[in-house]
Design brief:
This protein is an alpha+beta fold. Helix content is 26%, strand content 34%. It has three helices and four strands; from the N terminus they run H-E-E-H-E-E-H. Strands 1-2-4-3 form a four-stranded antiparallel sheet. A hairpin with a 2-residue loop joins strand 1 and strand 2. The longest helix is centred in the middle third of the chain and has 10 residues.
Length: 88
């Protein structure tokens, strides 16, 4: 398993079978805290592998505003700002 490095996140997700279709950065007060990746779903095994690779990863669910029946999941990996500032 590759060592956690934020720039390796897309390759890592692909290697465990996660097909992400959107990515971006979550910021607070202009500090970049997380890099996120949206997918249709994660299996229990994939979540466990992600947490082994990055213990500080966070998982979220999201819904489209105008089509609430469409759901997606998101995994967010911490960036340097998270470790400097924290997540409050």
């Amino acid at each position: 398993m590759m060592k956690y490095q934020i720039s390796n996140a897309p390759a890592f997700l692909y290697s465990i079978g996660v097909r992400q279709y959107e990515s971006g950065t979550l910021t607070k007060n202009k500090v970049k805290l997380f890099e996120y990746y949206k997918a249709d779903s994660f299996t229990t095994e994939q979540k466990a592998e992600i947490l082994l690779w990055c213990k500080d990863a966070r998982f979220f669910n999201s819904r489209a505003q105008y089509a609430p029946e469409l759901k997606s999941v998101m995994v967010a990996f911490p960036k340097a700002g998270f470790y400097r500032k924290g997540f409050n």
